[in-house]
Known about the structure:
Blueprint: E1 5-13, E2 16-21, E3 24-30, H1 32-42, E4 47-51, H2 63-72, E5 77-80, H3 86-95, E6 99-102, H4 104-108, H5 111-120, E7 125-134, E8 137-142, E9 147-152, H6 153-163, E10 167-172, H7 184-193, E11 198-201, H8 207-215, E12 221-224, H9 226-229, H10 235-244
Parallel strand pairs: 1-4, 1-12, 4-5, 5-6, 6-7, 7-10, 10-11, 11-12
Antiparallel strand pairs: 1-2, 2-3, 7-8, 8-9
Amino acid sequence: xxxxxxxxxxxxxxxxxxxxxxxxxxxxxxxxxxxxxxxxxxxxxxxxxxxxxxxxxxxxxxxxxxxxxxxxxxxxxxxxxxxxxxxxxxxxxxxxxxxxxxxxxxxxxxxxxxxxxxxxxxxxxxxxxxxxxxxxxxxxxxxxxxxxxxxxxxxxxxxxxxxxxxxxxxxxxxxxxxxxxxxxxxxxxxxxxxxxxxxxxxxxxxxxxxxxxxxxxxxxxxxxxxxxxxxxxxxxxxxxxxxxxxxxxxxx
Length: 252
C-alpha cells in the first residue's frame, strides 16, 4: 500500500502565512519560508502554498517567494492562487514549484485543464475544489470561497480528471479551521469517484482525525494548517501515531 502523505498548507496573504476559520477570521501565523524549512526538517511529505487573495485581487501569485522556498526546502511543493493561463504556470514551475493548483479559472474555463495538462503533464496539475454542503448537495465555490456556483462537487471533479487533472485538493468550507474533523462523506465520495489521488483539507484538530480521513474518507493525503503552524500537533508525533494505528506513512 502506498504511504499516506501529510501536507502542511501555508495560506499566504501580503507575503505572510495566515489562517482563518471557514475562510474568515484571518490571523497571522508566521514567515512562510521559515515555516517551510521547519516542516521539511520535521518530516512533512509535501507542502502547499496558496495565495488566498490573488484571484479576488486579480493579480498573479508572486514568483519571488516561490524561488525563496525552492532554495530552502528539499521536498515537493505545490503553489496556487490567481493562476489563469499557461504563462502563469510556466512562471511558477520555472521558479521552482513542483505542482500548481487551479480552482476558479478552471471552473470558469474548463478547457484550461486540458491545455495545462497537455503542455505540462497531468502530474503537476492539481485541481483545488472549495466545496460547501447545502442539504444533500455539495457545491463548488470560487474566489477563495466567496462565490457560490451551481456545480456539483462530484460531477466537477470527474470532469476535471477526464480533462487531465492529476490530483484533487478537496477543501470542505464547512469544516475549514474548525478542528472538528475532516468532511469524511464527501471526501470518500470523491475518492471513490476518481482514479487520481485525493488530498483532504479542512477540519483537522487531533491525530484521530487523520486516521479517520485515511480509513473512512479513503483519502490519499491529508492537508492541515493551524495545528501545525501553532505547534498543536508536531509532524513526527502525528506520523508515529498514524504508524501505530496501521496507517502507512513515510517516517523521517
